[in-house]
Amino acid sequence: MTTTDVLHQTEPRAGASAAPCHTTPAADPYRWHIIGASVILTATLPALVALMVLGAPKPPPPPWSIQAAALGVDPHEITLGETTYLGACALCHGKSGEGIPRLGKPLRNSAFVQGAGDAELFDLLVNGRLPNDPANTSGTLMPARGAQGIDDARLAAVVTYLRAIQDPNAPTVSVEAWNTRPADGTGDALAAAGGPGYELFIASCSACHGANGEGMEGLGKPLKASDFIASKSDSEMVAFVKTGRPVWDELNTTGLDMPPKGGNPALTDEQIAEIVSFIRTLQQ
Ligand code: HEC
Ligand code: HEC
After folding, report:
1. Which ligand approaches the C-alpha of residue 219 most closely?
2. Residue 193: which residues within 8 A CB-CB, separation 6 or more?
3. CB of 205 shorter than 6 A to ligand 2
4. What's the 2 CA to ligand 2 centre distance in angstroms?
5. Which residues contact 212 (CB under 8 A, 6 or more apart)?
């Protein structure tokens, strides 16, 4: 093959496009610039997007998802249990189940909770545990259905929540401080004598006045042997509990607030009357 032959072959054949040679891609001096630029663009854009997606902070996992997976339940069940717990149980057992001395026992990392089956826990929440129950070591009432008539579905969710706050790797918490049931059976007598007012008292008043009305330093006065209570009729006592005694009241003796209805606006007049009859049994 001669040089002339080669030149001939590259020449456009007769009848083919008459476009001048310098506009074909092969001859475009910017060809590689354009190819290079488009390769860079097509490769870097997705790479940038991928980096942004991977580098963005991961959205937090939905609450309780880890515990729910471990327990094989829907996370919403635990959330419902938690909400119910905060509304009905935290008052006595603490916001995160740490327990409150002289009220509810610890429930987080609790040997009792871990040792009890679901049905046993559910029964306890439905029925409560009276001060004279052999299993009761504090002498304080654990009220039935959180003292708020909580329905079965919510109590079952609370059982699931109690499971979710057990850490199998953490040591269980001591309940020694709650083993205060008087050996002489005073608590039993109170529960027996107090009737329905006792349960209401425990739920609304004992946080400040103590489970046996003995008073709590910096919170509420003793309600045993009170001249004030002795001097008032039942209806005057109901009226007093409804208004409370704010710090600015000239009759206030402690500089602490006695909130209207003990801070529980749901109490009816009849319920307050029952609490008053219970308080009467403390006066001897
Ligand atoms: C008015 C206070 C009060 C409320 C409200 C209350 N508890 Fe209790 N709870 C107690 C007391 C006091 C005890 C300890 C009784 C005893 O000495 O055995 C107790 C015991 C328990 C125990 C057994 C613990 C153990 O170690 O034996 C569980 C479980 C429990 N409560 C769960 C709940 C749940 C869940 C709720 C809410 C639905 C609730 N409690 C509401 C006062 C309360
Ligand atoms: C948040 C704490 C708190 C709660 C809850 C509470 N109290 Fe009180 N209560 C007080 C304080 C503080 C006083 C004392 C006020 C003063 O300085 O005179 C008091 C005083 C009283 C007195 C007057 C005692 C006396 O000798 O003067 C009675 C009766 C009483 N409370 C009943 C109740 C009843 C019944 C309940 C439940 C429905 C209740 N309290 C709930 C804090 C509380």
Report:
1. 2
2. 278, 281
3. yes
4. 118
5. 139, 186, 187, 190, 224, 282
Which pLDDT value is given to residue 97? 97
Among 132, 230, 144, 229, CA closest to 190? 132
CB of 104 within 6 A of ligand 2: the answer is no
- Ligand 2 pocket mutation pick from 198, 209, 241 by most atoms within 8 angstroms of CB: 209
188 pLDDT band (50/70/90 cuts)?
A: low
Give me the amino acid identity at 181. R
* pLDDT for the residue 187: 63
Q: Please say whether the dihedral angle defined by the alpha carbons of residues 172, 176, 181 and 184, taken in this order, is positive or negative.
A: positive
- Ligand nearest to the Cα of 279, by number: 2
Which of 14-28, 69-83, 134-148 has the lowest average pLDDT?
14-28
